[in-house]
Amino acid sequence: MSRQKATRKEKFSSQSSAKQSENNFKPTTNHIQKYLAAIIVIVSFIVYANTMNHGYALDDYSSIIENKSTQKGFDAIGEIFKTSYRYGYIFVADELYRPVAKSVLAIEWGISPNKPSTAHWINILLFMLTGWLLFKTLVDWLKGNLFVAFAATLFFITLPIHTEAVANIKSVDEILGFLFGLLMLRSIHKYNVSGNTMSLLKAALWFLIAIFSKESSITLLAVIPLVEYFFSDKPLKNSWLPTVVCLGVAFIFLAIRSKVLGPVGISLHPSITDNMLMAAPNLLTRTTTAIYLLGLYLKTIIAPTVLTFDNSFPQLPIIGIVDWQFIVSGIVLLSMLFIAINGWKKKEIYSFAIFYFFITISVSSNLFVIIGTHYGERLMYTPSFGICLLLAVILQRFLSKKSEEQKPNFLKDNKLSLIVMITISFLYGGLTIARNPIWENNGTLYSSGLISSPNSTRVQYYMGNHLIKEDQLAGKSPQQQDSILNAGIGYLKVAVKLTPSFTDAWNQMGIAYARLKNPQEAIKCYKEGLKYNKNDPTVHNNLGTVYFTAGKFNEALAEFQEAVRLNPRYSEAWTNIGSCYGSGQQFDNAIANFEKAIAADPNNAMANYYLGITWRSKGNETLAQNYLNRAYSINPSLRK
After folding, report:
1. Angle at 294 (CA atoms; ends 452, 377), nearest 5 degrees
2. Which CATH class name applies to 535-638?
3. pLDDT tier at 267, thresholds 50, 70, 90
4. What is the signed CA dihedral for 359, 183, 124, 77, rounded to 10 degrees?
5. How many CB atoms lie within 10 A of CB 306?
6. What's the mean per-residue pLDDT of the chain?
7. Among 534, 539, 530, 492, residue whose Cα is nearest residue 512
8. Is residue 56 left, alpha or beta, with left meaning phi > 0 and alpha meaning psi from -120 to 50?
9. Helices (H), 436-570
10. Ranges of each domain in the chain
11. What is the pLDDT of residues 206-218, one digit of tens each?
């Protein structure tokens, strides 16, 4: 080799080494993607880190603390898949079937009973996973558009309206529904690109888990064709197979749900206090009010100036067709729909975002079917992604410059967009962190509601009910207990003033008066509640208890019998019937009813205890000791 060639070779090697060294210090798109994904995970943790040591609040009580089924832990899994969501807590039928979400709650209880920190940690970890997965999915869908993928995900993980979904343990159903729904859509996209049948089977599995976690995840079925149309080169007519497969999964879920819940319609008729739309005088007003509420949701997602855990009747108004709030909401929503339709042919990302929002909010909107509530911030967890994506697209469209280079520069091309995005996310994240402490426990939550929604019937009821509970009275002097009970009655009186037909509030007021040893007022409250709902077995049972305490056994027996007529599995009422017969020395009748109580609930400690006492009265010490020992094992405090 000549010296000249060697020199050229050395120069070439030197230049190559220099270029390689330069590339080592210059981040590639893959490096940037990893950095951004790490930022998403870190920020997801930061915004909810101050919820880790929170206690139980709101629906955690009906789903966990006061739910006998959930508290069976791992042993409850089989039962959970065979019963409704609220089974183990209430006596009336409910239309909710979320076995995966409830199983998670049972497993958490099995791992660490009565330790909410474990469940809060799991919610945060699932939320972090969701943020990471959302970013990775958007990168794939948008073919490497890192800014939109990053901005949309950052907005999503910092949105203050998500506080309830993450900070409230029970709302793991929302997190799981969206997480597995996202896995389903991601697998559908992979199937579109590769044609791999395994991806399609995974999509079916993820979708099944999603709808078993939260029923409203079924709306993602209509998102499948959108993902195929907007994010692949295939025509829409070729998207039928994934849609049909997931439609089959949906039918399987509906069949199982129908088998478990029995003849429960699409939705039970909620009360006015649960869904204010029931107070609308006609269908037109119900529709205009629902559209107003959609506008309110949209405003709260984007500009969360007022957040509240409850907006029940009559905090929000019934809106007519000439009301400006309906008109503004209608114009905004129709404009969004027009923009989405206009961008359909060009496969504009903003078009997908808007259609996604309308599809996933359809159930919560109350426009097509009346659900159990008219408003809930947690219900926006899945739909809000569409708005986050829309905001990200708008930022890039108007504030980012189009790169003239072959490879775009993430920082240089999006400098102004990044500044605005970081500012918005910082404000969102700050509001979220500041709001999290409200969800620490029922006391902090209900106190916040009195400020944000003072005219909400349920807020007043929740605070009153919270104060009269036994755990609030424990360890207090008689004078302090009376003061707390009277304060609770004060809130309950406001609740029935706002909504006189609210039987639950009358019932709790009766309990408070009974604890104040004022049976006359307690009876008045129970009877007032039954005037509005004579088929409430709990009120009949409580009224019977007051009669029994006063020695009016015939009146008590009549109320207890009415309670079990309305709900044959009302174990406590069967126990009370047995006590009535036992007080009259009718031991055989007493035994028969205590046995019915145990058949309805084998873990009814008092029924086992009284049955043991009754057998002792009949001279059968063997049976007496058997049932007494069983009672002591269930509730050791009964052993004296």
Report:
1. 45
2. mainly alpha
3. very low
4. 100
5. 11
6. 89
7. 492
8. beta
9. 442-452, 457-467, 470-473, 478-498, 503-515, 519-532, 537-549, 553-566
10. 36-436, 463-495+503-526, 535-638
11. 999 999 999 999 9
CA dihedral 176, 179, 181, 186 (to 10 degrees): -160
Burial 61-81 (b: 16+ CB within 10 A, else e): bbbbbebebbbbbeebeebbe
What proportion of the chain, given as a percentage, has pLDDT over 70? 92
pLDDT band at 415 (very low <50, low <70, confident <90, very high): confident
For 463-495+503-526, which CATH class? Answer: mainly alpha
Classified as helix, coil or strand, 18 is: helix
Contact 437, 50 (CB under 8 A): yes
394 and 354 in contact (C-beta within 8 Å)?
Answer: no
3-state secondary structure (DSSP) of residue 440: coil
Q: Model-level pTM?
A: 0.88
Q: Check if the beta carbon of residue 63 is closer than 8 Å to that of residue 70.
A: yes
- Runs of H (alpha helix) within 262-320: 283-302
Establish whether domains 463-495+503-526 and 535-638 are of one fold: yes
- For the record, the structure tokens of 632 come out as 């002591």
Quote the CA–CA distance of 286 and 275 in Å, as a whole number.
Answer: 11
Cα atoms found within 13 Å of the Cα of residue 237, Cβ hemisphere only: 0
Dist. CA 276–CA 108, nearest whole Å: 34
Q: Using alpha carbons only, what angle is made at residue 325 by residues 319 and 331, rounded to the nearest 5 degrees?
A: 115
Q: Would you place residue 601 in the very low, low, confident or very high pLDDT band (cuts 50, 70, 90)?
A: confident
The DSSP code for 317 is P
* Cis peptide preceding 537, ω within 30 of 0: no
Task: Answer whether residue 411 shows pLDDT above 80.
Answer: no
46: Cα separation from own chain's centroid: 22
Q: Is 8 exposed, middle or buried (0-12, 13-18, 19+ CB in 10 A)?
A: exposed
